[in-house]
């Protein structure tokens, strides 16, 4: 079970507090989105713009890290101020948990920097010695994206990293069983599985694992349990673990 943007159902998404809460709740892993700042730092933010989750305005990509650090990313949820979270800080936090944790990192596309996002990501993971971790290493990383090209770049620069092809809508002539070369995990949305339950069998027959996002209500959790998916991504790690009899 993976905590989506941390324990984002109860705390501001992508904040240090949200991830610390998810780890305290016992999540097997955490999920984050990453974007690149104007001066080349990876920050944990979902939206292209700052408006929804901070007191700032404009595009994330047009700001330096120092400029983002002056903004408040917590008060919009009524829980008090919070600073922007860098991926570097999140990785240190996960390592400090002192137990096995998998980090799902989604690179967001399209963006003004293109493949530089994946390049910077691989460089950062290499500094943390997470590009090719030894079997049994406590911190493991998986990279996700809706962009097949982004996943191909990751496979080229860091072939040992597992990758997930995210899917929300099935376009005409989509061949769901064929993921980008080297990708063995599909990430369909819960909305897609609700409307097209045959998607799971198609992916299974092709030999793929399946991680489903974002599973928040009991009905959806019961559905994915019956389907026997490999990973559940949720905003509410504590409640989900309790429902899975693991709390």
Q: Could you give a short description of this structure?
A:
With 247 residues, the protein is of the alpha/beta class.
General description of the model:
The chain is of the alpha/beta class and 247 residues long. It has one domain: Alpha-Beta Barrel (TIM Barrel). Helices cover 32% and strands 18% of the residues. It is built from 9 helices and 9 strands. Strands 1-2-4-5-6-7-8-9 form an 8-stranded parallel barrel, surrounded by 5 helices. Helix 1 (16-25) runs parallel beside helix 3. The protein is globular. The N and C termini lie close together (12 Å).
Task: Give structural attributes.
eight-stranded parallel β-barrel, alpha/beta, TIM Barrel, 247 residues
Which helices and strands appear, and what pairs or packs with what?
Layout: E1 2-4, H1 16-25, E2 29-36, E3 42-44, H2 65-69, H3 87-96, E4 101-107, H4 116-127, E5 139-145, H5 148-157, E6 163-167, E7 185-188, H6 190-195, H7 198-205, E8 209-212, H8 218-227, E9 231-234, H9 237-243
Parallel strand pairs: 1-2, 1-9, 2-4, 4-5, 5-6, 6-7, 7-8, 8-9
Antiparallel strand pairs: 2-3
Strand content: 15-25%
**Amino-to-carboxy terminus distance:** 12 Å
CA-based gyration radius: 17 Å
Describe the largest sheet: 8 strands, parallel, barrel
Number of structurally distinct domains: 1
Quaternary structure: single chain
Judged by helices, strands and strand pairing, the structural class is alpha/beta
The sequence of SSEs as H and E is EHEEHHEHEHEEHHEHEH
Counted beta strands: 9
Query: Into which percent range does the helicity of residues fall?
Result: 25-40%
State the CATH architecture. Alpha-Beta Barrel
Query: What is the CATH class designation?
Result: Alpha Beta
Which topology does CATH recognise? TIM Barrel
Q: What's the CATH H-level homologous superfamily?
A: Phosphatidylinositol (PI) phosphodiesterase
**Strands of the largest sheet, in order across it?**
1-2-4-5-6-7-8-9
Globally, the shape reads globular
Count of individual helical segments? 9
- Average pLDDT reading: 95
Give the uncertain stretches in residue-range form. Answer: none
């Amino acid at each position: 079970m993976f905590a989506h943007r941390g324990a984002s159902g109860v705390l501001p998404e992508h904040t240090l507090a949200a991830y610390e809460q998810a780890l305290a709740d016992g999540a097997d892993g955490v999920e984050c989105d990453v974007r690149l700042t104007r001066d080349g730092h990876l920050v944990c933010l979902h939206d292209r713009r700052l408006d929804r989750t901070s007191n700032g305005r404009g595009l994330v990509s047009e700001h330096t890290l120092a400029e983002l650090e002056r903004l408040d990313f917590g008060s919009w949820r009524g829980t008090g101020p919070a600073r922007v979270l860098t991926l570097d800080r999140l990785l240190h936090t996960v390592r400090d948990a002192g137990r096995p944790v998998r980090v799902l990192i989604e690179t967001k596309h399209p963006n003004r920097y293109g493949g530089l996002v994946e390049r910077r990501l691989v460089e950062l993971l290499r500094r943390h010695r997470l590009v090719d971790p030894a079997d049994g290493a406590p911190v493991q990383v998986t990279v996700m994206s809706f962009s097949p090209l982004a996943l191909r770049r990751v496979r080229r620069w860091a072939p040992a990293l597992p990758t997930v092809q995210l899917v929300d809508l099935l376009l005409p002539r989509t061949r769901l069983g064929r993921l980008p070369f080297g990708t063995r995990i599909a990430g369909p949305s819960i909305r897609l599985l609700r409307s097209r339950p045959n998607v799971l069998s198609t992916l299974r027959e092709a030999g793929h694992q399946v991680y489903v996002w974002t599973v928040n209500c009991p009905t959806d959790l019961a559905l994915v349990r019956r389907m026997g998916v490999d990973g559940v991504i949720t905003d509410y790690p504590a409640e989900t673990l309790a429902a899975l009899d693991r709390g």
